[in-house]
Amino acid sequence: RKEVEQDPGPFNVPEGATVAFNCTYSNSASQSFFWYRQDCRKEPKLLMSVYSSGNEDGRFTAQLNRASQYISLLIRDSKLSDSATYLCVVVPGTASKLTFGTGTRLQVTL
Amino acid sequence: NAGVMQNPRHLVRRRGQEARLRCSPMKGHSHVYWYRQLPEEGLKFMVYLQKENIIDESGMPKERFSAEFPKEGPSILRIQQVVRGDSAAYFCASSPGTSGTDGELFFGEGSRLTVL
Prior knowledge:
The structure holds two protein chains of two kinds.
Chain A: E1 4-6, E2 11-14, E3 19-25, E4 32-38, E5 44-50, E6 55-57, E7 60-65, E8 70-75, E9 84-91, E10 99-100, E11 104-109
Parallel strand pairs in A: 2-11
Antiparallel strand pairs in A: 1-3, 3-8, 4-5, 4-9, 6-7, 7-8, 9-10, 9-11
Chain B: E1 5-7, E2 10-13, E3 19-24, E4 31-37, E5 43-50, E6 53-56, E7 65-68, E8 75-79, E9 88-95, E10 106-107, E11 111-115
Parallel strand pairs in B: 2-11
Antiparallel strand pairs in B: 1-3, 3-8, 4-5, 4-9, 5-6, 7-8, 9-10, 9-11
């Protein structure tokens, strides 16, 4: 089983739609969780951290379910500029390295 | 812009040649990570270094690949005797400390290696 699994998509949604991505992880001792965004042929950039209590940043909401070992990202009122690949990131155990999922591609259309 | 600087941005090599990729971390950052991204695949961790020390190289292939981060100068990822399967984007990232808790790695724009 992969350490971090994501549905590769693509998710094609119209502008204004709400879209959600899930990500599962295998190591129950994982410490920290994040969502990164990667535009085509660009470097990844941190989008937001994921906390047990859930957290929101504008149109973006991240949730963590430790019991089921999954993380979610909800994007409300999608914009064309949200089109990108969203990478689920897990820090397994106490290791410092970040483990990336393969990403979920989002395409927002007019 | 004092971001993570990688060079070269694009590198073409023939099979059997050597590739050297360089990375200068952000100012004030002493931790460097190398990741590889194959076409249509995710980022795979390769190695984590601090100045003059390799902290974690669990993702490095056992042969032909090496990395260093000397006291002076950039971090270097070296691939000897390249093969076609080494064609990928190699991303370097840096952080001021261990990235395990706050999760923010600052990535360079990547070096795209093509092996003919």
